[in-house]
Specification:
- The chain is α/β, with parallel strands linked by helices.
- The protein has two domains: 174 residues, Aspartate Aminotransferase, domain 1; 251 residues, Aspartate Aminotransferase, domain 2 (3-Layer(aba) Sandwich), CATH 3.40.640.
- It is built from 17 helices and 14 strands.
- It has a five-stranded mixed β-sheet, sandwiched between helices. The protein has a three-stranded antiparallel β-sheet with strand order 9-12-11. The protein has a two-stranded parallel sheet with strand order 1-10.
- Helix 7 links the parallel strand 5 and strand 6.
- The longest helix has 20 residues.
- The radius of gyration is 21 Å and the shape is globular.
- The mean pLDDT is 97.
- Bound molecules: ligand PM9.
- Ligand PM9 binds next to helix 4 and helix 5.
Length: 459
C-alpha cells in the first residue's frame, strides 16, 4: 500500500484566533460583497482558502530574520543575502527585487514586448497576460490540450505542445516572438506541473529559433516535487536539485515570492543577461524603488532569502503537497468533481459539473464560491469566465473550458481538521446545488475584473 501520511515537519508556536459567524451574518456579508469573495472582510471568514499568496505562516527563523532587517536606502545587507540565495538556489546571476510578482511582470513586459508581438505561454495567468497586453503584446496559449480537460489524468498537464509553437512561428514569424513564458505548476490549469523532459524540448526549440525562455517561477518548488514523484530518473534527486535544474534551463524569471517562498510580500525579476539586468535596473527605479530594494523592506528581503531555503526542503514539500492531496482524496470520497490530478497549491472544483443548471454566462464558479462561503464561512476563489475576462480586441468574454472554484491551501497554516470541515461544507453545498442561482454583473471593472467586480443573483 502507498504511504499516504504526510505529517507536518514543524510544530505550532503561536496561533491566530478565528471568528465563527452565523448563516444569517454570512448571507448579509456576501450580499454586501456583491457575491465576490474578494470583497468579503477577512474577519467574516472562518477558513480562508482564497489564495496561497502572502498568507503562509513564516517560520521562527524567518521571523528572526525580520529582526535583522538592514533598512538602509541603498545597498542593504539583506539584498546581497537575497541575491546570493537566488544564485545558489535558482541559478540566476542577477536579481531585481520588486514589491510582488506583477511588479516583475510589468518591468519585463515593458522591456521585451513591442506593439504587435506575440507571447506564447503554457496557459494564461491573469496579471501576466494583462502586462503583456498593456505592453502591446498578444498572449498565445501553447499548453497541451489535456490541460483544458478537468478529467484528464495526464501527469504533466503543464507541458507545452511544440506543434502549437511551430504553428505560431509559421503564422507570425519568430521575430514577432520576444520570449516564451513558461510557468511551473501552472496555476490556471489547476496547479499542474511541467516535466523536465518537456522543458528541455522547449529549451532546444528556443535555441533553434533564438527566442528567450522566461520562467514564471512562482511555484517552482511544488513543480519540482511532482517531477521527483512522477518523472523517470528523478526519484533520487532532491527538490532542491530539481529546482536548480529547472531554473538553469531558462534565461530569466519572474517570481511572486508570496507563494513558494512563504513571505507575506515581495517578488523579483531575475536573469542571466547583463544587458537585460541593466535595463531592468533603469525601470525598477521608476515603478518600484532602488534596484537594491525594489519595493521591499530590508527585513522582507531577509525573510525571503530564508524562505527560499525552507521551500526546497523535501519534508516540507511532502507535507505541503500531502495536505492538498488529502483534501482532494476526501472530496473524491464524497463524489465531488475536481480537477485531476490534484494540484500543487489547491484543489479545483468543477463548477460546471456541480451547477449543471447554471450556464457559463451566469458565472457558475462565482456562484458556487459565494454559496460555499454562505454554507460554512469557507472562502474560495472563482477561476473561470470571470477571471478569464474579455478579449482585448473584440471585447467578447473568454469562455474557458475550465470553470473552476479554487480551494487554495496556504502553506503551514491550516490543520487536517480544517480540511475535514471544508470537505463537509463542499459536500453539503453539492447536496443543495439546485437551489444555487446564477449571477450577473452589476459592476464590471475593465481590467482584472475578478478582483473588484460585483454581481447580483438572477431569479
Ligand atoms: N497569484 C493567486 O492567488 C495572487 C493574485 S491573483 C488572485 O494565485 C502566478 C503564476 C501567480 C501570481 C499570483 C502572479 C502574480 C504571477 N504568476 O500576486 O503580483 O499565481 O505577487 O503575483 C495569485 P503577485
Amino acid at each position: 500500500m502507498d504511504k499516504q501520511s504526510w505529517a507536518e515537519p514543524y510544530k505550532i508556536k503561536m496561533v491566530e484566533l478565528l471568528k465563527m459567524t452565523t448563516r444569517e451574518e454570512r448571507e448579509k456579508a456576501i450580499e454586501e460583497a456583491g457575491f465576490n469573495t474578494f470583497l468579503l472582510r477577512s474577519e467574516d471568514v472562518y477558513i480562508d482558502l482564497l489564495t496561497d499568496s502572502g498568507v503562509g505562516a513564516m517560520s521562527d527563523r524567518q521571523w528572526a530574520g525580520m529582526m535583522m532587517g538592514d533598512e538602509s536606502y541603498a545597498g542593504s545587507r539583506n539584498f546581497y543575502h537575497l541575491e546570493q540565495t537566488v544564485k545558489d538556489y535558482y541559478s540566476y546571476q542577477f536579481t531585481v527585487p520588486t514589491h510582488q510578482g506583477r511588479g516583475a511582470e510589468n518591468i519585463l513586459s515593458q522591456i521585451l514586448i513591442k506593439d504587435g508581438d506575440f507571447v506564447p505561454g503554457n496557459m494564461y495567468f491573469t496579471t501576466t497576460r494583462l502586462h503583456q497586453e498593456l505592453a502591446g503584446g498578444t498572449f498565445v496559449d501553447v499548453i497541451i490540450d489535456e490541460a483544458h480537460d478537468s478529467a484528464s489524468t495526464h501527469p504533466f498537464k503543464g507541458n507545452v505542445d511544440l506543434d502549437k509553437l511551430n504553428r505560431l512561428v509559421e503564422e507570425v514569424g519568430s521575430e514577432k516572438i520576444p520570449y516564451i513564458c513558461i510557468a511551473t505548476c501552472v496555476n490556471m490549469a489547476g496547479g499542474q506541473p511541467i516535466s523536465i523532459s518537456n522543458l528541455k524540448e522547449v529549451r532546444r526549440w528556443c535555441d533553434q529559433h533564438q527566442i528567450m525562455l522566461v520562467h514564471d517561477m512562482t511555484r517552482v518548488a511544488e513543480n519540482a516535487y511532482f517531477i521527483q514523484q512522477r518523472e523517470e530518473g528523478y526519484q533520487n534527486k532532491s527538490v532542491k536539485e530539481i529546482v536548480y535544474e529547472i531554473c538553469s534551463l531558462t534565461d530569466a524569471a519572474t517570481m511572486s515570492s508570496k507563494k513558494d517562498a512563504m513571505v507575506n510580500i515581495g517578488g523579483f525579476l531575475a536573469m542571466n543577461d547583463a544587458e537585460l539586468y541593466e535595463r531592468a535596473c533603469e525601470l525598477v527605479v521608476v515603478y518600484e524603488g532602488l534596484h537594491t530594494y525594489g519595493g521591499m523592506a530590508g527585513r522582507d528581503m531577509e525573510a525571503l532569502a530564508i524562505g527560499i531555503k525552507e521551500s526546497v526542503d523535501d519534508a516540507h514539500m511532502a507535507a505541503r503537497i500531502g495536505q492538498v492531496a488529502y483534501l482532494g482524496r476526501e472530496l473524491e470520497k464524497h463524489g465531488v468533481p475536481i480537477v485531476k490530478p490534484y494540484g500543487g497549491h489547491a484543489i479545483f472544483l468543477d463548477a460546471q459539473a456541480i451547477l449543471k443548471h447554471v450556464p457559463q454566462e451566469n458565472f457558475p464558479a462565482q456562484a458556487l464560491a459565494a454559496a460555499l462561503y454562505v454554507e460554512s464561512g469557507v472562502r474560495s476563489m472563482e477561476r473561470g469566465v470571470v477571471s478569464a475576462g474579455r478579449n482585448k480586441d473584440t471585447g467578447e468574454n473568454y469562455y474557458p473550458k475550465l470553470e473552476l472554484v479554487r480551494l487554495t491551501i496556504p502553506r503551514r497554516v491550516y490543520t487536517q481538521a480544517h480540511m475535514d470541515v471544508v470537505v463537509e461544507s463542499v459536500a453539503q453545498v453539492m447536496e443543495d446545488a439546485e437551489s444555487i442561482k446564477g449571477l450577473e454583473f452589476i459592476y464590471e471593472p475593465k481590467m482584472l475584473r475578478f478582483f473588484q467586480g460585483r454581481f447580483k443573483q438572477i431569479s
